[in-house]
Write a structure and sequence with these properties.
- GO terms for molecular function: S-adenosylmethionine-dependent methyltransferase activity.
- It is a single chain.
- With 229 residues, this protein is α/β, with parallel strands linked by helices.
- It has one domain: Rossmann fold.
- Helix content is 36%, strand content 27%.
- It has nine helices and nine strands.
- The chain has a seven-stranded mixed sheet, sandwiched between helices. It has a two-stranded antiparallel ribbon with strand order 6-7.
- The longest helix is centred in the N-terminal third of the chain and has 15 residues.
């Protein structure tokens, strides 16, 4: 979906308050200390998370369905990360079982139709003691924007930006259904986070800072494999 506007989005996401001062700090905070660890960046986009993880001492590999995003991510990580063009709807054939300490899956799961299958594949590659850090759009934010029933489960086509023609297709579903899919895929929720914007946003984007302190836009989770799965 992003390939047509990949360069525009990459420039936007690098500095957007919702990305740079809201989601990335939340996700990287849940990731914790990654020094010396192997991290898989699922749907790596233009490499903004991968570059930060690498800077913090992680060995990074990952994938994205957009060739342009992967090229940008490789450039951003100086070619030191193993990043490949790959659709997460397909198995991660090049990643061995139990070979990854942490999976980061930021703001992408809502684009996938069979989310349980993708989560099961990400669980397969996790080493014992590993974790999956995931963020997605907050169901309440989507309901406030789209209306209808909060409990609707359906794909929605809209523009990613009100100011730009960036068409996307993403699923809406209540928090109950999101958490149920985690369990079906063999995960338990270790930590649940409705992020607050970082304090710097109050100076650079005061309106966004005020809004995000009233209504969460995203939600983040740290998931661990369920014993016996």
């Amino acid at each position: 979906m992003y390939e047509r506007f990949a360069h525009e989005y990459a420039a936007h996401a690098a500095v957007s308050p919702y990305n740079a001062l809201y989601d990335r700090p939340a996700v990287l905070g849940l990731a914790g200390d990654v020094r010396g660890r192997t991290v898989f960046d699922a749907a790596c986009g233009p490499g903004l998370y991968a570059a930060e993880l690498q800077e913090r001492g992680a060995r990074v590999l990952g994938c994205d369905a957009s060739p342009t995003f992967v090229a940008l991510a490789r450039e951003r990580t100086g070619g030191r990360a193993d990043l490949r063009v790959h659709d997460l709807a397909e198995p991660l054939g090049w990643v061995p079982d139990g070979s990854v300490d942490l999976v980061v899956f930021a703001l992408a799961i809502h684009y996938l139709d069979d989310r349980v299958a993708v989560l099961e594949e990400l669980r397969r590659v996790l080493a014992p003691g590993g974790a999956l850090v995931l963020s997605t759009e907050h169901p309440m934010s989507k309901w406030l924007r789209l209306g209808g029933s909060y409990f609707d489960v359906e794909p929605v086509e809209e523009s990613l930006s009100e100011e730009r023609d960036w068409p996307i297709r993403a699923w809406r579903m209540p928090l109950t259904d999101i958490c149920a899919e985690f369990r079906r895929a063999g995960f338990l929720i270790d930590e649940f986070l409705e992020p607050r914007p970082v304090p710097e946003m109050a100076e650079s984007h005061p309106d966004d800072h005020e809004l995000l302190n009233q209504v969460p836009a995203f939600v983040a989770f740290r998931l661990v494999p369920r014993p016996g799965c």
